[in-house]
Amino acid sequence: MKTGIVILAAGDSSRLGSPKQLLGIRDTTLLNHTVAVAAGLKEAALALVLGAFADQLLPRIAVSRAIIVHNNGWEEGIASSIRTGLAVLTDYLPGLDAVIFMVCDQPFVTTELLEHLVDAATCNDKGMVVSRYAGAHGVPALFKSKYFEDLRNLQGDTGGGQLFARYAGDLLFVDFDNGDIDIDTPQDYDKLQAR
Fold it and tell me: Which residue numbers delimit the MobA-like NTP transferase domain (predicted)?
């Protein structure tokens, strides 16, 4: 299965007050942790979508194999970053079978989880393979190519969750321990540091 990964890292971290992408975690930053996890899926093409803090983030990115793209429309919301990342990957790798979308503020994401998403998609005919955590589901999430057009039509500050609701019968879930832990506020980061 020809797979791509899009890391959505274009937001302005408005609730945090500073670039969450640069917060420290286990001797690295949240962004570099996420990029390293994605790069661990060696057979996947990787796109990193930057926006609000691109000038600050670019010099600090540790993995060079990612296609780095600047989303000039990042203020529109996450849908513009989804469209931007998908466009880059489908241009770079025609015939792409699936794309995994992930964010950079989930400190417990692992390459193993991404491998589980791909394995589940390969062994199943469901069109979306979605992470499940704490009674909810979301990213990282894999979308097979039959949903690329729906992803291209997303608007505003809503992501793939619209498709989860619209095509609920075409979902497969993979458990993601601690997937509900993300960093949106200073309090979230303090809780993470206290763990």
Answer: 6-167
**Rounded Cα distance, 109 and 40, in Å:** 12
Cα 120 to Cα 32: distance, rounded to the nearest angstrom: 26
Please tell me the class of the 3-194 domain.
alpha beta
Each residue's pLDDT tens digit, 27-61 = 899 999 999 999 999 999 999 999 998 999 999 89
User: 3-state DSSP call for residue 171?
Assistant: strand
Q: Is 179 helix (H, G, I), strand (E, B) or coil?
A: coil
The residue type of 11 is G
What does each C-alpha distance from 151 to 6, 11, 119, 135, 143 come to in angstroms? Answer: 12, 18, 22, 24, 9
Which residue ranges make up each domain of the chain?
Answer: 3-194
Closest CA to 111 of 3, 20, 185, 190: 3
Q: What is the reported pTM?
A: 0.94
Report the 10 Å Cβ neighbour count for 14.
9
Chain centroid to CA 127: 17
